[in-house]
Amino acid sequence: MTVFTTTPPRSLDDPGLGEEYLRLVGDGDEYGAVEVVNELLENGTPPQRVMLDLIARTQGRVGELWAANEWSIAREHAATAISERALAAVAARSSVRPTRGRITVACVDGEWHALPVRILGEMLRLDGWRVDFLGANVPGTHLVTHLHQTGPDAVALSCMIATRLPRAHAAITACRSVGVPVIAGGRGFGPDGRWAVKLGTDAWAAGAQEALDRLNGDWPPRIGDPYETAFLGDDEYTYVVRHRGDLVSTALVRLAAAYPPVSGYDQRQHDATAEDLGHVVDFLAAALYVDDAQIFTDFVQWTSAVLEAREVPPVALQIGLMLVRDQLRDYPAAIAVIDAGVAKLRP
């Protein structure tokens, strides 16, 4: 007697599927990744689950592997491109005619992490919205011009890195000034959206599903005075921003004396150190802008872990922080923020 066995259909409940998909994107296997997505859809898996539970979740793992120095930046970029291709495959098989309103979806000026907001755009399309997806790095002036031309019911703005908050604030104020409410998302607005609220957004969502729930609820909100929260920052913030180049270059010059191993750095290591010092100043400015040291302390803790994974000792970061601090003796708020960051490095 012949016994026929059949392979059970793929399911997101399979414990090994996530690791298999991660291996595919990590190996640059675009066709394999798309095949997994298509098979899930053919087996009846809702496209929303494919986007959130497979593509988005895997992308989070990709970021973690880069931070842990297990993947190179090139491999991370290649994996992201494959995830975008897989997302396009989902979109190609999932068409819903718009029955709701029109919404503009974009990343704030200077924000290049477009995949999360692209997933949001596809989720909105499946929910019946007409979506204008503007992608990454949208300057505020161009965003407002688009709003005048299209007249959407809402704008969804994404900010993944807190250093973009000042630009996000300008975009939020501009959108609300022309009567278009804003829903914000992305970890750049804080773990609970606290900075989105401070910048005057009409709503905040931790993820794509929560954004849909907010838009399906009491929407649109009544827009109050768009300029009520339009002015943040102070003299210290202004000084740090205007003197960014001087703060970085001076710290870099003094670093060789304060941390002798720097003298043995090659050009690539030297450039990476200059970039890291630039991030220190940028996150300091963002913390001063919204008057919340957590932006800076979170950055310091994350950077310390990333550097340690690359065998850079925490003392190197601590010295860099102090070299920036030494140039800000007349700015007590900035010093307090840096001191809070240094405290996070102590065992």
TrEMBL record:
<protein>
    <recommendedName>
        <fullName>B12-binding domain-containing protein</fullName>
    </recommendedName>
</protein>
<dbReference type="InterPro" id="IPR003759">
    <property type="entry name" value="Cbl-bd_cap"/>
</dbReference>
<dbReference type="Pfam" id="PF02310">
    <property type="entry name" value="B12-binding"/>
</dbReference>
<dbReference type="GO" id="GO:0008705">
    <property type="term" value="F:methionine synthase activity"/>
</dbReference>
<dbReference type="InterPro" id="IPR006158">
    <property type="entry name" value="Cobalamin-bd"/>
</dbReference>
<dbReference type="GO" id="GO:0031419">
    <property type="term" value="F:cobalamin binding"/>
</dbReference>
<dbReference type="GO" id="GO:0005829">
    <property type="term" value="C:cytosol"/>
</dbReference>
<keyword id="KW-0170">Cobalt</keyword>
<dbReference type="GO" id="GO:0046653">
    <property type="term" value="P:tetrahydrofolate metabolic process"/>
</dbReference>
<dbReference type="InterPro" id="IPR036724">
    <property type="entry name" value="Cobalamin-bd_sf"/>
</dbReference>
<keyword id="KW-0479">Metal-binding</keyword>
<dbReference type="GO" id="GO:0050667">
    <property type="term" value="P:homocysteine metabolic process"/>
</dbReference>
<dbReference type="Pfam" id="PF02607">
    <property type="entry name" value="B12-binding_2"/>
</dbReference>
<dbReference type="InterPro" id="IPR036594">
    <property type="entry name" value="Meth_synthase_dom"/>
</dbReference>
<dbReference type="InterPro" id="IPR050554">
    <property type="entry name" value="Met_Synthase/Corrinoid"/>
</dbReference>
<dbReference type="GO" id="GO:0046872">
    <property type="term" value="F:metal ion binding"/>
</dbReference>
<feature type="domain" description="B12-binding">
    <location>
        <begin position="100"/>
        <end position="226"/>
    </location>
</feature>
